[in-house]
Amino acid sequence: MGLTSIARIITLLVLLSSQGSSRYYVNIAVMETHPMGNEIAAWDLELQEPMKEHNVRDHEHSKPTDEMIIDAGYPSETHTVVTDDGYILTLHRIPHDVGGTYNRTRPVVFLQHGLLSSSADWVVTGPGKALAFLLSDQGYDVWMGNYRGNTYSHQHVNPDIDKKTYWAFSWDEMAEHDLPTMLSHMMEVTGQDTFYYIGHSMGTLTYYTACNYHHWIQNATRLMVGYGPHTIVANMISPVFGLMSQFANDIQWILDYLGLYEFLPSNWLIEWWAAKVCDESMMNQGICENLMFLVAGYNKNEMNSTALSYIMGHTPAGTSTMNMLHYGQSVNTGGWAGFDYGSDQLNLRRWNSTHPPTYKYDVITAPVALFWGENDWLVV
């Protein structure tokens, strides 16, 4: 790897990681960064970023999912499950409608959020509008999942787990471990052997991938509904992933030498992305300060401006840098495959092969209904 390539990578990762007013000296000679500088540097890069707060979340606009459900007058339950690899996940449930009673014959529906999101997505716009409430009103037992690394699923059974180990996941692990764990718990609690599944964006990708690992999932699915569905992202125009794709081949160097495992872009980098895609009206509403809109796109004619501050109070909800890089790999390869660790040795350790698996469509046998929007930067 040449000096120019290394400098480019370090510049990006410093911008990804610096969350306040900081000065960094990046020393190419020894592959280290020091807040106070390094006097033996053969080559130095100085970056200084003023502190600027984005997305300040007051309680009114960022209430937890269960609190929003209760405020709306619906019954709320919070369930905790543990995956077979030790991640502690939180599920939220609306067991029946307002004034209703528990009934084990209610059809069960599972809602799974997309990238950088959480269960809050399904209730944040309130009764009469949010999908979770509408489904409850129609007699469904509504369950909402949260993938590892987001606001509600940020713990592990090992309290001493290091950051490198904890954040070493992408949507592969969500599909292989998280989704089957949550679905199994839902079926056990409700006594139901079938369910409806509704996924958004990454929530569709993980469902399709999970069908490659667990054939019982598609057999138990009465109907799979996908919003912004995808397996490949050949038409992606998101500026965030356009940049991430340029660094997808330098994964282990990024993770091992820079130690940036949780995806936390800096204020400077968000502003740089925003400058590439935002118009004046978007700037005025603060949309361009929110990473979620820079990832997925924005349509002012379809956006409820009243709900905007509440939506931004819950996103981005968090994920790993590795997960974002996995999407970057998908942009580069145009395929639907497992995470490529960048070396034969590491791939063998994870996949028992020098190459990650290519996932298959023929295992997806459940009925499927798909919906998408033309302004979805991630998919369409």
Description:
The protein is of the alpha/beta class. It contains 15 helices and eleven strands. Strands 4, 5, 6, 7, 8, 9, 10 and 11 form an eight-stranded mixed beta sheet that branches. Helix 3 links the parallel strand 6 and strand 7. Helix 5 crosses helix 6 and helix 8 packs across helix 14. It starts with a helix and ends in a 9-residue tail after the last strand.
Rounded average pLDDT: 78
> What class would the helix/strand composition place it in?
alpha/beta
**Main sheet summary:** 8 strands, mixed
Low-confidence stretches: 14-56, 265-270, 282-287
Q: Could you give the count of β-strands?
A: 11
Rg, alpha carbons:
21 Å
Strand content: 5-15%
Q: Per the principal axes of the C-alpha atoms, what is the gross shape?
A: globular
Distance between the termini: 34 Å
The ordered string of helix (H) and strand (E) elements is: HEEEHEEEHEEHHEHHEHHHHHHHHE
Helix content: 25-40%
Helix segment tally: 15
What are the main properties of this structure?
380 residues; 8-stranded mixed β-sheet; globular; alpha/beta; 3-stranded antiparallel β-sheet
Quick rundown:
The chain is an alpha/beta fold. Helix content is 35%, strand content 15%.
Which secondary structure elements does this structure contain, and how are they paired or packed?
Layout: H1 3-17, E1 22-27, E2 32-34, E3 46-49, H2 65-71, E4 77-82, E5 87-94, E6 108-112, H3 131-137, E7 141-145, E8 155-156, H4 163-166, H5 171-190, E9 195-200, H6 202-213, H7 215-220, E10 221-227, H8 239-245, H9 251-258, H10 267-277, H11 280-284, H12 291-296, H13 308-312, H14 321-333, H15 344-351, E11 368-371
Helix pairs in contact: 5-6, 8-14
